[in-house]
Design brief:
The chain has 18 helices and 3 strands. By secondary structure, the protein is mainly alpha-helical. Strands 2-1-3 form a 3-stranded antiparallel beta sheet. It starts with a helix and ends in a 17-residue tail after the last helix.
Length: 444
């Protein structure tokens, strides 16, 4: 504990790091305050029906990602999700569109152009999503009396403008956090929205266990222990790597080429190279079968209803299969084994026992395929774990935190942020957050 307190004090001593953390926290507070502002013309006291209809299911999941803003008819009701959707579309288009492929190879200037394309695509998505959200509000439980100014053209125009502005503002906050603060801003905004629902979900579960004599404090304690075990497993999934040994016959040291026989390094291939993206892709597709629930055909409607229950059997079977498929797909498009093999060859490195060039690329691709299988299976298990937990009597709102996108985003963002803080500490010759020991001494 003393080591931790000492590390926190070291963080506070570094003015640059302190400023970055304070700026990040301030912008996240601004985002959360904006999420509490309802759309003009809607009575916030008559949103009980909307809150009840978005407490579970697919809408409940969307509401969790926006930190409850979706159920409050807030100016931030759509949150940062349209930007995430635009980012996914741009990434997928990068496979087939030569212009985007060219931008990806142009370094920083190309990245800026891709970001600009993503922003404009976000606005295009908002032009569709914002009216859809507003039109669906009455069917989601908001009575006519809640629309104080009616639902005329003025209401729709102003609300669409505000919803679009809210998402653009959230996007700007995220980019500012990334540029001037600490951590990935967009991911932090999603995480803070998820965490915002954590206390209410836990209290609901605790109240249910105690008031209904459903296990009491013992069951609450057991659930907390299981939750920490799942978090530990998620950390292992995020950080686990398969090291491919690389040997260099020649290495460049201080500008001079020296023969360093036997010098070895490793290529780390992550067990889960695709991160949380397969779950996000799969979840986006899972909204499609749910649309069939509004069909007039009884057979199609029954199928649609089965896929609207995020804790149902058929939903989770299809969800798990899609996650495994997308894990391989996303890994294939983001891990260029051919480029890795070429870079290795140019640098004078080789995998022992494997010829440089194509054979090395094939070898890396084979290893990557093998490690992706257990990684994708584990990821699928974590994604459907909330559905398994609910069978034990856990409240749906609390079960969401036992796996799926919510938990993996929180774990991934926390690790990424800690690594950035750790890097700042080590650069200033302090102990990192992830290691123990005394302050590092520098020899002059």
């Amino acid at each position: 504990m003393k080591k931790f307190i000492s590390t926190v004090q070291d963080i506070w001593k570094i003015e640059e790091l302190r400023s970055k953390i304070l700026l990040t926290l301030s912008l996240m507070v601004v985002y959360r305050l904006a999420a509490q502002v309802p759309l003009p013309g809607i009575d916030p006291t008559q949103l009980t029906g909307l809150a009840n209809n978005t407490s579970d299911g697919l809408l409940g999941l969307l509401n969790a990602f926006t930190g409850g803003a979706f159920a409050k008819a807030s100016v931030m009701a759509l949150g940062i999700m349209p930007y995430i959707s635009a980012s996914i579309v741009v990434q997928l288009m990068g496979i087939a569109v030569p212009y985007l492929q060219k931008l990806q190879k142009e370094g920083e200037s190309g990245r800026k152009k891709i970001n600009q394309i993503t922003r404009w695509l976000t606005i295009a998505i908002l032009i569709i999503q914002a009216p859809t959200y507003l039109i669906s509000l009455p069917s989601l439980g908001i009575p006519e009396s809640a629309f104080l100014l009616g639902t005329g053209p003025l209401f729709y125009f102003s609300s669409i403008l505000l919803l679009t502005t809210g998402t653009v503002f959230a996007m700007w906050l995220g980019e500012k956090i990334t540029d001037k603060g600490i951590g990935n801003g967009i991911s932090l905004l999603i995480m803070i929205g998820i965490i915002a629902r954590f206390p209410a979900s836990f209290m609901q579960e605790a109240t249910s266990r105690i008031n209904q004599s459903n296990g009491g404090l013992i069951m609450i304690l057991i659930e907390i222990v299981i939750w920490f075990v799942v978090i530990f497993a998620s950390v292992l999934l995020v950080t686990a790597v398969r090291k491919i040994q690389v040997q260099y016959a020649r290495r460049t040291v201080a500008g001079n080429i020296q023969d360093v026989a036997g010098a070895r390094q490793y290529i780390p291939l992550k067990l889960n190279s695709s991160g949380v993206m397969p779950i996000i892709f799969a979840q986006a597709l899972m909204f499609v079968p749910g649309l069939m629930a509004s069909s007039e055909n009884s057979v199609i409607k029954s199928i649609g209803v089965a896929f609207t229950d995020i804790f149902g059997l058929w939903y989770n079977i299809l969800f798990a299969v899609l996650i495994i498929i997308f894990s391989y797909f996303y890994t294939a498009i983001t891990i260029p084994t051919n480029k890795m093999a070429d870079d290795l060859k140019r640098g004078g490195g080789f995998v022992p026992g494997i010829r440089p060039g194509k054979e090395t690329a094939d070898y890396l691709d084979t290893i990557l395929s093998r490690v992706t299988l257990p990684g994708s299976l584990f990821l699928a298990l974590l994604a459907i774990l909330p559905a398994i937990i609910t069978k034990a009597g856990v409240q749906p709102g609390w079960a969401i935190f036992y796996g799926g996108t919510s938990l993996l985003i929180m774990v991934g963002v926390a690790i990424d942020t800690l690594q950035q803080i750790n890097a700042h500490l080590l650069n200033r010759h302090y102990d990192g957050l992830m290691k123990s020991g005394s302050k590092r001494k520098v020899a002059y």
